Amino acid sequence: MTPTTPLDPTALPLEQKAALLSGQDFWSTPPVEAAGLPSVVLTDGPHGVRRQVGDLDQIGLLESVPATCFPPAVAVGSSWDPEVAERIGAAIGVEARAIGVPVVLGPGVNIKRSPLCGRNFEYYSEDPLLAGVLGAAHVRGQQDAGVGASVKHFAANNQETQRMQVSADVDERTLREIYLPAFERVVTEAQPATVMCAYNKVNGVYASQNRWLLTEVLREEWGFAGAVVSDWGAVDDRVAALEAGLDLQMPGDHGAGNALVVDAVRTGRLDEAVVDRSVARVAALAGYVTEPAHAADVAAFDADAHHALARELAAGCAVLLKNDGGALPLAAGQRVAVVGEFARTPRFQGGGSSHVNATRVDDALTALTAAHPGVAFAAGFTLDGSGDVAALRDEAVELARDADVTVVFAGLAESDESEGFDRTHLDLPAAQVQLIRAVAAVAPRTVVVLSSGSVVSLEGWHDDVDAVLAGFLLGQAGGSALADLLTGAADPSGRLAETIPLRLQDTPSWLNFPGEQGHVRYGEGVMVGYRHHVTTGTPVRYPFGHGLSYTTFETSDLQVTATGADSAEVAVTVTNTGGRTGRHVVQVYVATSAGPVRRPARELRAFGKVSLAPGESRTVTFALDRRAFAYWDVRESGWVVAPGEHTVQVGRSAADAVAEASLTLAGDEIVPELTLQSSVAEWFEHPVAGPQLLEGFLATMPEGAAEMHAGMLQMIGSMPMRRFAADFGAAIPTDELERLMAAARAAR
Ligand code: BGC
Fold first, then answer.
1. Buried (b) or exposed (e) across 326-341, using 16+ Cβ within 10 A?
2. Which of 56, 118, 299, 504 lies deepest, with the highest CB count within 10 Å?
3. What pLDDT does 1 receive?
4. Which atom of ligand 1 is nearest to the CA of 163?
5. Active-site residue, 263 included
6. What 3-state DSSP class applies to 42?
7. Hey, how many other C-beta atoms are within 10 angstroms of the C-beta on 387?
8. In a 3-state reduction of DSSP, which class is residue 45?
C-alpha cells in the first residue's frame, strides 16, 4: 500500500470539520485519520495532572492516575517567585508527557476579587501583575517541556456562585486594569497553546460567545494565535460561540452542536471560513501529541524527585505572619507539643476539577517527629466536627501545659471550600478557635500553622499567640515543608498575595458579592484588594505583601531615573542584616494622582526575589515601562500616561513603603475630542479650541467679562456647548464651532 498524504484539515467534509471542533468525550478531541490528526487529550491542571481512566467524570469523583500534587496557585502566589511557577509548570509537563496528556488545563489567573471565592486556591493573587508574571512563568515551564497550557478562565470569573449564569458587570477601565492584564501578560509573553473561556457572562454576554473578548481583545489586540477552548459545558449557543471566536467546545455533546454548525453553514447563516479558521487552530494542537493518546495507568516519571521538588518549592511559599520573641524556629531541646488533626491529616489541595490523586502525602507530624524526637501529639478536634469537642480540647491543653512550645495546626477542611461554591464567612470552625485560645492560655509559647485555600480571619485569637505561619495549601509535600520551616531547616520567604482583612465587611467587594438577580456588579471598580485598603486607609490584619523571615533585611539607596517621556529605571540596594541566609521580596509600587481618573494610592509595578547571605548587599534594578505609569482612558480607548508627578515606592508590603522617590513624566499630550455635546468647560479648557474660543467670546462681551470668566465656567461649565451656544445667546456661530471642532480633530 502506498502511504496517502494527509489532507489539509480544512479540506475535510463539513461534518468532519464540525466534529473536530468539539470533544469526542470528556477529555479528548476526535482523531481524523484522513488528515493525519491524532486525538488530543486535554485534562486538568493546574497544579498536577488529573488523567482519568476508565469511566470519565468531570468533577473528580473518580480517581485519576497518580501524579504529583504540587503547591496550588494560592501557595505559588505567596512565593512571589516566577521560578517556583516555572519549575512547577516544567514538572507538570514532564508528568503529562509520561501519562500521555498533550494539553494540561492551567494555570488559572483570575483575580481574587473577594476572599470568599471558593476557587481562590486555584488563583494566584488579588494583584494582576503578580498573577500575570507567575502565570506566564508556569506556561513557559510547561510548554518548554512540550505540553500545551490553557490559561483560564477568560474572563471575570471571580466567584463560584451562579458561575454558569451570572453576568459580571464590569466597566472597561476596571477590566483593562485589573481583570485582563494577567491574561494579557500570559498571552503576549508565553503564547499558551489554548485559552479557556469562562462560564459566566461578561457585561451580559456569555464569555463563550463574547466577540469583544475572544476576538477583538484576545486575538486582534494581544495577538493570540492558539485555540480558544470552552470551559467544560460553557457553550450556550454553539454557532454564536464559533462566530465570536471560540474554537473548541468541551466536552462534546454527542454531536448536537456539530449538527447546528453544519446546518448554519448549509443555510448560509454561518460562513464556512469561520469553521475552517477554527479547524486550523484545533488541528494545530495535534503538534503537542508525541505519541498516540493512551490510557496510561502507570506513571512513568521520577515520583521521588518530583516529591522532593514539591517539598522544596512549598517551603518557599508559606508566609510567616507573626513571630514574636523569636518563637520560631523551634530550638533543639525544646519540648514540643503538636496539636490539631491537620498535623496528622494534612489539608494540601482544594476540591473540584483540580483534585490530584497524589503519589504520596507527607504529614507534618511525622516530619516534625523525625526532626525533633519526643514530639507529643493531640488531635484537638476532628475534621468533620464530630466527637467530644471538649474532651479533645482538654487533652490538647494538658499537653500544651507540659511543653515549652505548642504548635497548633488549624485550618479549613476540604468541605469548607471548593470549586462550585463560595464561602459565606472567613471564620475558622469555632472548635478550632476555642482550642487555640485554650492552648494559648496555658502554653508558654503558642505557634499557629494555618492550612486553607484562601485567607481566614485571625480575629479572636491572633493576639493570644506568639507566631502564625500561613501555609495556605502547599501540595502533597506540604507537611514536610511546614516541618522544614518550623525547625528552621528552611527560611520562610513567602509574602501575602492577598490581604488578610480585619472584617469581611472591610473587603471592597463586600456590598457587591456575589451579586443578585443574575448580575454581579463590580462596584468597587479598580479598587480591588490592597488598592482599596491603602486608598481608603482601612486597617487590615496583614497587608498584601507582608511576610517575615528568620533573618532581617534593609533597603537603601533608592534611585529612580526617567528613561523616556513615560518610563523609568529603579535601582535599590537590599542588605541581609540578620544572622542567616534568606530571601527577600523587593516590592516596587507606583503612586500618582496625576490624570483625570481616580487612581489607587499605590499599585504594584515590579517585584523580584533576592537570596542574600548574612551581611550581603545587592543592588537590584527594575525597568518600569509605560504601562507601569498608565491608566486605561475610556475616552481615548487606550493606555494613557498622565503628565506630572509619579512616586516610586519600595515597600515591605502594600501598607509599608520604606523608600520613595518621585519623578515628573512628560506623559501623553492628549488633545481631547470636541463635539457639540462636549461641555462648555471642555470647550474653554481645550488646548487647541479653548484659547481661540475665549478670544472670540470675550470680544463680544462687555468690559470686565474676563474676570467673570472663571466664575461663569464654574456655574455653567457642565452645560453642553450646543445648548450654551443656542439657548444662552452666547453669540457663537455654528460655523465657528464647526471650524474649532475640525481644528481639534486635526490636532489629535
Ligand atoms: C472547571 C475548569 C476545568 C474543567 C475541566 C470546569 O468545571 O471550571 O477549570 O478545567 O472543568 O475539568
1. ebbbbeeeeebbbbbb
2. 118
3. 43
4. 8
5. no
6. strand
7. 14
8. coil
Give 642-689 pLDDT, tens digit per residue: 999 999 999 999 999 999 999 999 999 999 999 999 999 999 999 999
Q: How far is CA 637 from CA 155, 176, 202, in A?
A: 19, 10, 18
Helix/strand/coil for 572: strand
- Ligand 1 centroid to Cα of residue 232, in Å, is 6
* Burial (Cβ within 10 Å: 0-12, 13-18, ≥19) of residue 296: middle
Return the C-alpha torsion angle 487, 489, 492, 493, nearest 10.
180
- 590, 584 in Cβ contact below 8 A? no
**Which atom of ligand 1 lies nearest, measured to the CA of 352?**
7
Check residues 705 and 481 and name the one with the higher pLDDT: 481
Once rounded to an integer, what is the mean pLDDT over residues 374-399?
96
**With bands split at pLDDT 50, 70 and 90, how would you rate the model's confidence at 290?**
confident
Span 465-475, average pLDDT: 98
Ligand 1 neighbour 353 (Cβ under 6 A): yes
- For residue 293, name the pLDDT band (cuts at 50, 70, 90): very low
56 alpha-carbon distance from chain centroid: 29
Q: Name the 3-class secondary structure at 282.
A: helix
Pairing of strands 148-154, 103-105: parallel
Q: Tell me the torsion sign for CA atoms 670, 673, 674, 678.
A: negative
> Is pLDDT at 384 greater than 60 in this prediction?
yes
Q: What proportion of the chain, given as a percentage, has pLDDT over 90?
A: 89
231 touches ligand 1 (CB under 6 Å): yes
At 509-551, the pLDDT tens digits run: 999 999 999 999 999 999 999 999 999 999 999 999 999 999 9
Region 498-503: mean pLDDT is 98
Q: Whose CA is nearest to atom 3 of ligand 1?
A: 353
Residue 193 to residue 103: CA distance in whole angstroms: 8
Return the closest-CA partner of residue 326 out of 492, 499, 456: 492
Using DSSP, how many helices (H) and how many strands (E) does the chain show? 22, 26
- Asked if 86 contacts 37 with a C-beta cutoff of 8 angstroms, the reply is no
Please give the pLDDT value at position 436.
Answer: 98
Task: Identify the residue whose C-alpha is closest to ligand 1 atom 7.
Answer: 232
Cα–Cα distances in Å, from 382 out to 404, 477, 596? 24, 22, 55
Residues in the chain: 748
CB neighbours of residue 369 within 10 Å: 18
